[in-house]
Design a protein that fits this description.
With 195 residues, the protein is mainly α. The protein has eight helices and no strands. The protein starts with 14 loop residues before the first helix and ends in a 5-residue tail after the last helix.
Length: 195
Amino acid sequence: MSAQGDPGGAGADGASGAGDRLLAVRAAEGDQEAFEVLVHLHGAAMLQLAERLMGTRTEAEDAVQDAFVSAWRKLPEFRGEAEFGTWLHRIVTNRCLNLLRARRPAADLDAVPEPAAPEHQSSPVRAAESHAAAHDLDRAMRCLSAEQRVCWVLREIEGRPYESIARTVRISPEAVRARVFRARRVLTEAMAAWR
């Protein structure tokens, strides 16, 4: 059973969602083993989401750890109105959004020493182009506001519907559409040379 492809945690028959609800009820009653099972089931998907939002593995791991601590504390508030995975997805997203808002401006990327390049199967020119494009995309992503980045990642990378994003970040679907539109415009302009 993989939580990676299904942020709601439910399989085709909904059995996983029911299992998650049962585990969540047990965890809310203080059963740490039940909570550990939930962490195991949803941890990889939440880490993948956080890494997309935060941009680095280290920050993503910190965000997910904080989110799981928060989820443990908030479990008595979980009513099962949404799937556990969806509820957890919201907690992780909001934690990342808060961290992005609080993030200090990053150091100029030119001032950071370049890590050793991995061996590429392709030509050195292709590897250099790929690295430069990734560098430009990273720089463009940092130009987005925290709200734009979260909405864009949830829509364009996670494939979430506007209504779901709106519930997650607690804004209207129209505001989500506007943020995604502005993010697309910024990224399109920044990446124009790569088209």
